[in-house]
Structures are given as structure tokens and as C-alpha cells.
Amino acid sequence: MENNENSKDKQLDQFRATNKGEKMTTNQGLRVSEDEHSLKAGDRGPTLMEDFHFREKMTHFDHERIPERVVHARGYAAHGYFELYESMKEYTKAGFLQDPFVKTPVFVRFSTVAGSRGSAETVRDVRGFATKFYTEEGNYDLVGNNMPVFFIQDAIKFPDLIHAVKPEPHNEMPQAASAHDTFWDFVANNQESAHMIMWHMSDRAIPRSFRMMEGFGVHTFRFINEQGKVRFVKFHWKPVLGIKSLVWDEAQKIAGKDPDFNRRDLWEAIDMGDYPEFEFGVQMIDEEDEFKFDFDILDPTKVWPEEEVPVKIIRKMTLNRNVDNVFAETEQVAFHPGHVVPGIDFSNDPLLQGRLFSYTDTQLIRLGGPNFHELPINRPVCPFHNNQRDGYSRMTINPGPVSYHKNSIDQNTPSTATEEEGGYVHYQEKVDGRKVQRRSDSFKDHFSQARLFWNSMTELEKEHINEAFSFELGKVQSKDIKQQVVNMFANVSQQLGVSIADAIGVKGPKDVKESSVTKSSLALSQEANPIKGVATRKIAVLAGNGFNGKDVSKIMKEFEKAGTRPEIVSDKQGFVKGDDGTEMEVSHTFLTADFVLFDAVYAAGGLSVNPKVKKEAVYFINEAFDHFKTVGASHDGVDLIADLPADTGVVTEASPSKDFADTFLNALAEHRHWNRQV
Fold this sequence. Notes:
Number of domains: 3
CATH superfamily of the largest domain: Catalase core domain
Largest sheet: 10 strands, antiparallel
Pfam families: Catalase, Catalase-rel, Catalase_C
CATH topology of the largest domain: Catalase HpII,  Chain A, domain 1
Strand content: 15-25%
CATH architecture of the largest domain: Beta Barrel
Protein name: Catalase
CATH class of the largest domain: Mainly Beta
Radius of gyration: 28 Å
Domain Catalase core: 25-413
Family: Belongs to the catalase family. HPII subfamily.
Helix content: 25-40%
Active site: 72, 145
């Protein structure tokens, strides 16, 4: 066996290669002079197709995994519709944005980015928020995230980013996590990521639910109306339930207790009729105001502060139907930011320009060829006609001899459409510049908006960001990388840099000039903009035989009336019986459920007799308390929370009055009781 192993090693030696000390080349051996910037027509111009290095690099990256997506592999989706509040005819000629009385069907896929298809869903990560609109003018795809900016400015660096954040290739660890050396080495050496990292270290990276996170188109697009008036536009999804997050310890425990937590939440909400709703908004800038701001509006690492460019809410999306088959729909759906309709066009954002190539290329390897548009989930609701033929998985049967343009046999059909007939006409932007591999100087400010984000956070949110940095960098092995990151983020905040350094055992930042940015944006803070409510929140009702049937039944009805989802947790499955003969079906046991899977806990009684069961219930309650959740108790359930300190999120009443449920629900509406934070 030893000889065979040695022979195999020798066989593999010819394929082993090291890059150390070598010059970069293409796969054909051509030396590369530039690997940071794609080829453009001028500093701020569009990316050019002749950039063979970009295409080779991106094509190789797009084809690295089979069959799951290279990124966004772990996803879940639902069907729905959206309808306008008002016509947008003044701003765009897009047909689906004209009539408030027309419902447009949609398909939305939520996802994590870094993990494999089998990874946990509550990891610290960006979340994808991709929406396919089945319009009468063709499919329109808004392929966004739950954060409005991105790590990089040019698509040529996307393979580098994902290679860095994916499991390290020498040992394939860690899965679905950014807390490791290669990711933070990338961050420290690619400082354009500073703003995005601030979002990534914030609570936005661990959303409570897909239903409770914002969505953003990230890039700058164009609206064009019938008169040819052009406006730059950014797209927003705002959840009706508000933006809510997990706490980090909770997120990690959920990953073990229920790695399907987010998809289960979406499935169950729709299944029970609690349809997720998102309002759709746009930020618009007149073309003549493009250079009016202290940032480049085409830079994907920058936000347009809502105080400077307000979000106009124009419609609402409702998700009301679960998929019938996850593979056929969720896995086979193919999104592409280049799927647009008349009235929506692109900007020269270099990250967007690269995505316009990459997404189609990705589908070719994932879905087996060029006919992925024929899969049911991808087919438009309007008919399609062209001269494209054959290929893998072709379903359309085209009779006749003609498959080319121009022709006389079929009277030159299918024929192109004029703009007046709905034909898509690209915006005729004037482009003037040398072919260069550079980035505009207006993209070089990497810290001002990272500082803007930091300034906009509440003290609580700053503490969470600090803790996130300390955890992530605490997992990094290289002290040199740790020091580089500390020095980098001292440019955002000296206070943050010092605090991180202290937590991870490296030197505090020196000779770093404190940022002079004092501007803040209230809209960036989720804690400063709370939407309070209890609808769809899950309450664990801890109950055993002998609970007060009359009072608990009333309280349960009030919970349900308010739109919450109370579920009985006990020591055994089946039914628990109250002192008046009332029976309630047990949804979970302490073995099959966990405190992290609920938004609040109510100890109803009947569990204090058995010491073992009492111990389990007390642990359940104490952990919920430690995660800042509302806990309540009545009757002998009060015994279970006797050791908890009194605060607004602890609601007890031995003989509950009719106000007990209201007090409990008001506390639950706060989402978390941060006064417990030490």
C-alpha cells in the first residue's frame, strides 16, 4: 500500500503548482499586467467585451462548482405578487410600473452567500434577495441583497472575494463562515471593502427572518420615461414587519438546533396565511445631478443617504404561495441583472457591468446549456420568438426551415420591434475615453461612508459591531492579519480600532488619523427606526398537567387574537390537561424544541411537580431571558422565573387579570429588552 501511495504522489506531482514568487499569467501563459481593474472606455465608462483576461477569470470562476450555485447555494423561495400604490409613468415607461390595478406575479429567492447548499441558515453572512417579475413585456430580475453596498467595486475582483470567504482550500474549513484568515487577509489588503464590512459586522448579517430584513438592488440603474428623460435609480425593499435580528449566541445555537430555521419560518408563515409583505421604494437622481454629491453615485460600495435622496415608496409585494417542488423551482430558477424591460437600463457601475456577463455564464454550467429559460420557473408569461435553436434541454418545437435573420421565406419574421412597439433600446449614453484598466479617482474614498455607518449606529449597535469584530478576528490565526485589520478600521473609528485590538491581543493602532466625517444617517440604524409589533411572533407556552385551564385558555386566545403563534411545550407529546378538564395539544417537548426557536416564553404552570421537568423549564426560560426576550408566567409558573430580576420584559401575575396578556404582548412588541445587556 505504501508503494502505491508513493506512486500516486509521483503521478500527482506533475499537476502540483505553486504561485509563490511567480508572475501572474492567463491560463494560456500570457503575463497579466493588471488584475485589479477591468478594461473600460474611460475611467467611469462601461466595461469592454474585448477584456479577455476579465472574461477568462470570470468564466473560470462561474464554472468552479457543479451543480450547486458557486454563491447563494443555500436558498429558499416563494411565489407572490406586487401591485402599485401609484403610477410611475412620470419616471419610467416600464409597463409593470404603470397601472395600480394590475397585479404582477413574482418569484423571490432568499439566500445566504458563502455556505454550501447544506449549510446552516443563521450564519453571519450577507443575504440574497432576488426577485423575478413576470411582466407582460418579459421577465425583469432585480437581483439584490439585504445590504445596500458590496465588498468590491469592480467585478473582476469577485472571484478573489469569494475565494477568500469560502472554506480555505487546503483543509475545506470553515463552512459558511467569514471568521478565518483568508477572508480577513482579503479585507485588510482590499480596503474598498471597509464600508461593507461595517454592515457585515452589524446585526444586519444575522436577520431574525427573511420576512424581517430589507432588500436592496445595490447597483445604480436608470429609469427612462416615454419622453426620454433619464434618472439614476436605486431600488429598496422594506419589510412591513420591520427589520429584526438575532443575537449572535442565539444565531449560533439555532444553527445547531434547526439549520433550516429561516426557510422553515418562511414556509410556515405562508402556510398559516401570515403572508410576508415588503414595500418597494426607489431613490432617484436626475441625470444632470450625477456629480452633485460627495461620493460617486456609481460606486457600489456607497449608499445614497436617505436624508439626501429620499426613498419614494411606490408599491407592495406580498408572498402568498410556497413552492411545490424545491428543486424544480428554487434550485432551477435563473436570475440575471441583465433581464430588464423597456424603461429600466444600466449604469456604468463596474460591478454591475461584470455581472451582466457573469450570470448567464453561470446558468450555462448549472442548468446544462442555453435553454434554461424554457424551464417552467424561468419561462416568461408573455410569448417569446427568436431564431435561437437546439442546445441541451430544448423544449420548444420550431416547425419550418427558417432559423436566421434576415429571411424572405417567412417574410423576415420574427422581425425586430421599434421602440414604439415595445422594442428595447439601450440608452444612448455618450462614451468618450481611452481604453484603460483603471478605476475612477472618484471611487478611491474607502472610509468616509464606513464612518457614516458607524456614526449612524446607536451605542448598542456599536457594541454589537465591536463584539462581531472581536469574534471574527478572534478566530484568525495570523497576528499579522489581525494587526492589519485593526489598523485598517482605525480609519473608520479610532475608538473601534482600540477596542478590537484590546479584545484580540494585538497592538492598538498608531499613526492613524481619526476620520473627520461627522455626518450620520438615521435610516442606517435599525434600532433607531423600530417597527413594533407582535404579528407572527412565536410564543413558547410551557405547560404541564394541572395548569389553570380557565385563565390560560383566555390568555392563549388573546395571544392568537393579536396575531402571535403560541405553541405548547411540555415534557411529553400528546395532550396536557388543565385543572378544569381543558385539554391542549402539545406541539413540542423540551427535547424537540428549544428557547432559541421562539420569540418569547410564557410559563403557564403544571411543570413544577417533577424536579427534572422543572429544571428543563427553568433552563428554557433563563436562556430566553439571557437573549433579551420577553418572558412571562402565571399561577405556579411564577415559581419557574422567581430568580429572574424584574424588568419590563418579565411579566408575572400569580392570578392574572385581563390586563396580563396585554402587558405581555406590549413587552413582546419591543422585540428585545436591551436593558439586560451588561
